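Changelog excerpt

This revision adds worked examples to the README so contributors can see how folded entries look when concatenated. The first example is reproduced verbatim below.
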Amino acid sequence: MTPSARQTILSRLRERKPLPATSQPDFTVMQQRRWSLQDGIERFIAQQAAVHGEVHRVSQPELSHAILARLTQAGAQRVLIAPEHPVHHELTRNAPDLQFHGYDQPVEAWQSALFHQTDAAITGCHAGLADTGSLVVIPSPTEPRLMTLAPPLHIAILPVSRLFSSWYQLITEEDWTGPMPTNTLLISGPSKTADIEQTLVYGAHGPKALTVFLVDG
């Protein structure tokens, strides 16, 4: 950039008039999106079903057996789950024939196994959103982002107590105006794309199936 061009730009910036004051944002519509717990659960299940996701409501004692039934239905043999996940011990005890392993090395070291030999991944969820049927997932070192993107089947575990009516309710009640997660995923159903002739196709890349266990207790 020449000195004259730089001077021209700086002069225009100095002459620029301040923008007029804007009115306060109106969040009335978002604030009205509040449902009772039962209504929120029914809406969450319906919204997931609309995008080919499936939701099963189970009690805490039923959870590990329900997960194993879903893994059996999918024919899964190699399953990705964080070793410290609360359900890990029960799964390994009740299904010794399955291979449960954690995400414990850089992706470059086992990329082929992750993308071609891992049948399913089991993760937790930070929250669920009833109005869109979305899962809010905050990746961590033991549950990184690729766990929800690479295996054909993603099994997500969501406590009923972490179901919010909307994204607005979540970020206001948890005060995300202050420190907030640096990487947050919103997952609504299995993978999908409309790149080809603008026709929506499910399971084109990433997880071909999403199963959410909504856990009471």
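The second example, added in the same revision:
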Amino acid sequence: MALLSVSLRTETSSGNLHEKRAEVFMCDNVDIAIIGGSGVYDVNLLDRVKEVDMDTPFGKPSDSITVGEHGGTKVCFLPRHGLGHRYSPSEVPYRANIFALKKLGVKRIISASAVGSLREEYAPLDIVVPDQLYDRTRLRKSTFFEDGIVVHMGFADPFCPQMSKMIVDIASSKGYSVKEGGTYVCMEGPQFSTRAESRVYQTLGFDIIGMTAIPEAKLAREAEICYSMIATVTDYDVWKDEDVTIEVIIENAMKNEVAVRDIISGIIKNIPSERACSCKDALNGAIATVHSMIPDETRTRLGPLIGRYMEQ
């Protein structure tokens, strides 16, 4: 159990936020985290709400983390781009975000993401639960493991199958148009694709396109956190000879807000206590460096990630 100093802003009976300093024991505190845009964060979903301001060895997360309860399940929300959408996709502090969630005890992450469609049958306002990723980024740090430690982690199936199946089942049961499976190609951004790029991605067999799943999914796997996505289609990218604008994307993302919140609520209510997947043991056998040769400073810094393996 780790002791972490944080700043808490708790909700009073009048609805105002009261800030105080506290020493909080962080271990198995939060069951599930939602990462996404501001439209997903409906505080009315949660009881006993507080905001937690954290530091990590990789800097501060995108913003303070909202923590609360929903039907007895502890849930936290993190705005990927920060409140007000301050961080470009390449500037998001992904490592700080995932490390902070790990320190909060998070076991599962649902990413709520707006995407473009590369297939006619994946129409705007559809929901896609992808099962594969293709990395086209080039400017982002995609691992926690450096400074004297090497980890070669399996990443063949980047999304948690248990969580993804639950998302599909719940979305379908609620009558939403949901597509199961598909490959998400992650581009660098922040510019949208050229028509040539969009058509090449189609030729390569990709299904949806976005800018944020990498390195988020890789880091979640390194942190042994289950990671799945609710991808909401906002447009057909530019392969269909239609211009893509931020206005169109925001308009369609807003239309899907209610659906995303409804699905998330269903997941929280039905989340199993045990994880029946390999995500929880992703580092088992993956640390290539002889343990005795890992620098003490690195061991300490990465303690929340590798501590249980260093004791073996």
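Reviewer comment on example two: Residues 2-310 form a domain with the Rossmann fold fold (CATH 3.40.50.1580). The chain has eight helices and 13 strands.
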